Amino acid sequence: MKQELCKILEQRELCPGYFYLRLNWETTCSEFIPGQFVEIKINESNDPLLRRPFSIFDIYENSFVVVYRVIGYGTTLLSKKKQGEYLDVIGPLGNGYNLEEEKLKKEESPVLVGGGTGSASLYYCAKKIISKEKSIRVFLGFKNTDDLFCLKEWNNLSVDLTIATEDGSYGKKGFVTDILPLNLDNSVIYACGPKEMFKSLRNRYLQTDVFASFEEYMACGFGICCGCVIKVIENNQEIYKKVCKDGPVFNLQNVIL
Amino acid sequence: MEQKSRLEISLKSLRLKNPVIAASGTFGYGDEVQDLINVSKFGAVTTKTITYEPRLGNEPPRLLETCGGLLNSIGLQNVGLEAFINDVLPKWDGIENTCLIVSVGGDTVEEYIRVCKILDKFKRIDAFELNISCPNVKKGCLAIGSNKKALKKLLKGVKKYAGKPVIVKLSPNFRDIKETALYSQKFGADILSLVNTFIGMSIDVDKGYYYFKNKIAGLSGPAIKPLALKIVHDVCSTVNIPVIGMGGIMNTKHSLEFLMAGAGAVSIGTANFINPKTIDHITNGLEEYCIKNNIENISMVKIIK
Questions:
Q1: Order of all β-strands in the sheet with B69-72
Q2: Considering the entire predicted model, what is its pTM?
Q3: What confidence category does residue B29 fall into, taking pLDDT thresholds of 50, 70 and 90?
Q4: Which end of chain B is more exposed for a tag (fewer CB within 10 A), N or C?
Q5: Which residues contact A246 (CB under 8 A, 6 or more apart)?
Q6: Which ipTM did the prediction report?
Q7: Residue in B63, B77, B272 nearest the CB of A217
Q8: Which residues pair with A142 in a beta bridge?
């Protein structure tokens, strides 16, 4: 991980409230693993005080992309930054999705499950698996058509893509968990979305590895403050693990939800 | 690393290559983030508080940003004494020139003494910092610091079994911090460090309950600096032993404020999260200050009384 002052190469609004931000990264981005994130300092001043964490959406040789939704003070300020301005960034952070051959090499193709803004975390994961010449099945759920922030990007990848919207305004009606195959025993799942979605996945697919990307409130983002913890079972004991360093991706089997 | 003799200081028998210390709880055990922050740039690193048994820490949520500050309720999550000795301490053999201060905590006075007694034999450890001020646990810490009898028993006990310098970390939440400072000095503390976090609170208006499960949490960051500075200034004019000043320090100017208030060294905590390069800025800045003001050593900075 490094700390760099990154030039904003591009920032555009994908759809109301959702932004695509591409930042220069002096050292190569090839070391970035899908599922990792960066911590961005919004302003040079101490307001807001803490950096904000963003999943990496996509990478190029010397730049990377984050896609985010404006949800509060920090993201509102970030969305007003312009091309050519600089941002202080720490990254890449976290462990990323487990894309080891033994995980991918199942009878059936891997399944990606995204809920809302969680879908952003899966894009680079998808590209990486495809680059290993494996096919994938992608299931994404959104509230309604206003939230289909990355549809164009997903359509550009040749993937088996199924969309659900809660109000049925696009794709199938319902939650993303309503459109998943019944049986995924012979597959592997990569997921990012709300905790309710994780609970549902874990309860439905008892025989399947589900690698889920979590998010928790962070102060440092790189493992020294012990603030961003979730409870897991390890060696038959309940302990706290840091989402920023031990995660953000955890095998749902081990997580206490 | 090049010696910066302008910045070399002593706190009683503890010699530091520069007066900037990493505060407890803000730097792990000192080895985890070498890519981002070079541990050896600090004059000293204070570890996360170690207790005899490992501790899970508090149930989340543990953090909340405030205006210019950070509320935390970590609750002393730590690996415990055995893992500290076996897994952490050996890594410090490779780090020369930076003092290692081990922060010690416990539920009871006996626990503190036990931990110090066992750790005292490790040469790599340069000093102990007794955490009698964390507000995020139900037993020990603040409860001991707020009780004169317990504090006396603690200090006498630690000084009896431990030969290393003893630093006592004080809380701004004490009824009378100057009084506690004087007692600490009287009962054998070699150095004082202050301030720990201020007790604060937040209410989740949507849930209609306290944001933190413990109801209260500790506030740190630039928001507390004026409060911390005043307390450090007052304690410095009360005691004769060296004081490590901290509370919201983010840059060279803040560091100088605390040094001019009488602190012999400063500690940075929350700043490490915000900008890992803070240690570089401050050590370079203090060096430049000495050169610009013709000061041979940073300890000669003018103290404002």
A1: B63-66, B69-72, B216-220, B198-201
A2: 0.95
A3: confident
A4: C
A5: A95
A6: 0.94
A7: B63
A8: A165
